[in-house]
Structures are given as structure tokens and as C-alpha cells.
Specification:
about 280 residues; alpha+beta; Immunoglobulin-like; elongated
Length: about 280
């Protein structure tokens, strides 16, 4: 057996290797700690851009938010709304998201909306932002409102079929038929107005509306679902229901004239913009 010819490392070399190894290990520990501490997060802001519209789907809130992703990609799982009247007799309303979309450039100076999904599931990338528009409906009476619109239309189409089925011999008979249609329309408009007015839920007062977004950071081990929130406060004045009723009467009458008399007139759904909106 031949004797070993290898020489032991000098002490300084051994210390140098040890120090370099310790530094490299420490850097990996620090990098891992930073990785763990900097999990993807999102920030959410519910903006003061809000209005309420009464339509076939019910008493609908149109809401705008800003969502910002930080430190990586996050998966949005769901969104929730909490609407409370905070002055006077307090009340909690169930506000349910129905459609999610975005603003679109229209022919005029004011943006329109395009809704493309009923699901809140989406991804927010690192250092990116999204500005979703959410249409949410007051849950308590929205099915009754939708049913009342359908009944109104059924009355109209039934009456139109009756009027069109008559044989008219003179101009006088045509005028009488027109008058009959007008009187019939006024009657069902008044009936629908009274019923829909009773189904409108928002009352005068001060409100707090909170948007909560649940999300999960992606690309991380043992990531847990988190929730972030943002809120606005606003007021509804005493003229809210009166204004809604006036605009609804005009919309129903025009809608009825289009059906009964084969017209193509434009009309707007009743719409109200709250007062004294504050982002909190």
C-alpha cells in the first residue's frame, strides 16, 4: 500500500470555504424568507361611481372597483357586497352580484358597459390592475319585479293581437281602435306602477356599501384564502321614490306604445345617482 501524497488544506483555506458556504446558506435562507414574506396580495378600492337602475332584473346597483395585484399572481375566488342603512332605523340589504364586465367606449362622451360573465373567478397578475364594473341586484324582490315586467308585456301582446284581429271599415273605427288601445295602456301602466313602486326597497337615509374580494395567492405552498374589503357611504334623498315612479311611468308607457302601435321609440329605465358619496 502506497502512502498518501495528498496534503491537508491550510487552515485559512478551510476557514474560507466554511465562510463562503455559510454566506451562501444565509443568502438562501434570506431569499426563502423574502419569498415567503412577499406572497402575492391584492388591493381593492370601491369607487364613488355608482348608480341604481330599475329594470327587468330588479333594483340594480351599478358599481365600479379598482383591483391591484402585488408581488405575484392571485386568483380571485368570489366577491361579496354588504349594504346597510346606517342612519335612522338601521337595516341590512342582501345585494347579490349578477354580472361582471367593463366600461366600453360609446359614440358619446360617456362610457357604456359590457357585461361578459356571471362568475367572479379571475386572475390578477403581478403589478397589474383591473377596473371591473359589477351589476348587483337587491335580492328580496328582484324575481317579483321581473315577473311584473313579464306580466305587463303579456297584457300588451295579448291586446295587440286582439286589436289587429278586428276588421276596420272606416277611418272613425280606426280612431276608436286607437283610443281603445291608449285607454287600455293607461290602465295597465297605472296598475304596474302601483305594484312596482311597492317592490322598490331603497328608502331615504344614509348607507354604507362594502365590497369584499376573496382571493388565493398562486404559486405558493400552503396558500390560504384571504379577503380584502373597501367601502363607500352615500345618501338617498326623500325624492328617490317619486323620481323613480315618474321615470318608470314614462318608460312603461313608451314600452307599451312600441308594442301596441308598432313603434320603435327609445326609452330609459328609471335611474338614480346617490348623493354625498364618500370613499372610505
Amino acid at each position: 500500500m502506497e502512502p498518501s501524497t495528498s496534503l491537508p488544506l491550510p487552515v485559512w483555506a478551510t476557514v474560507f470555504v466554511f465562510v463562503i458556504g455559510a454566506i451562501a446558506t444565509s443568502l438562501e435562507i434570506v431569499r426563502f424568507a423574502i419569498y415567503i414574506a412577499s406572497k402575492p396580495t391584492i388591493d381593492v378600492i370601491l369607487t364613488k361611481e355608482i348608480f341604481v337602475r330599475l329594470m327587468e332584473r330588479g333594483e340594480c346597483f351599478f358599481l365600479n372597483a379598482v383591483i391591484l395585484g402585488r408581488n405575484g399572481t392571485s386568483e380571485i375566488r368570489d366577491i361579496y357586497f354588504d349594504l346597510k342603512r346606517i342612519e335612522g332605523s338601521q337595516k341590512i340589504y342582501r345585494l347579490v352580484p349578477m354580472q361582471i364586465g367593463q366600461k366600453t367606449q360609446g359614440p358619446g362622451p360617456i362610457a357604456g358597459f359590457s357585461f361578459y360573465t356571471e362568475s367572479a373567478r379571475s386572475f390578477v397578475m403581478k403589478d397589474s390592475s383591473a377596473r371591473p364594473v359589477v351589476m348587483a341586484v337587491l335580492d328580496e324582490h328582484h324575481r317579483k319585479i321581473a315577473q311584473r315586467f313579464r306580466v305587463f308585456d303579456d297584457y300588451l301582446y295579448s291586446k295587440r293581437a286582439e286589436l289587429q284581429g278586428r276588421e276596420l271599415a272606416t277611418k272613425s273605427e280606426s280612431q276608436q281602435l286607437l283610443q281603445e288601445g291608449v285607454e287600455y295602456l293607461e290602465g295597465i301602466v297605472r296598475e304596474a306602477l302601483d305594484e312596482m313602486n311597492d317592490l322598490v326597497q331603497i328608502e331615504p337615509g344614509r348607507y354604507r356599501l362594502t365590497l369584499s374580494v376573496s382571493y388565493v395567492p398562486t404559486g405558493r405552498i400552503f396558500s390560504k384564502e384571504k379577503t380584502v374589503s373597501s367601502a363607500i357611504t352615500f345618501s338617498v334623498d326623500d325624492g328617490y321614490r317619486k323620481e323613480f315612479r315618474r321615470e318608470l311611468e314614462q318608460a312603461l308607457r313608451t314600452r307599451g306604445e312600441n308594442v301596441l302601435f308598432d313603434r320603435d321609440s327609445n326609452y330609459n329605465y328609471p335611474q338614480y345617482t346617490p348623493l354625498d358619496i364618500e370613499e372610505t
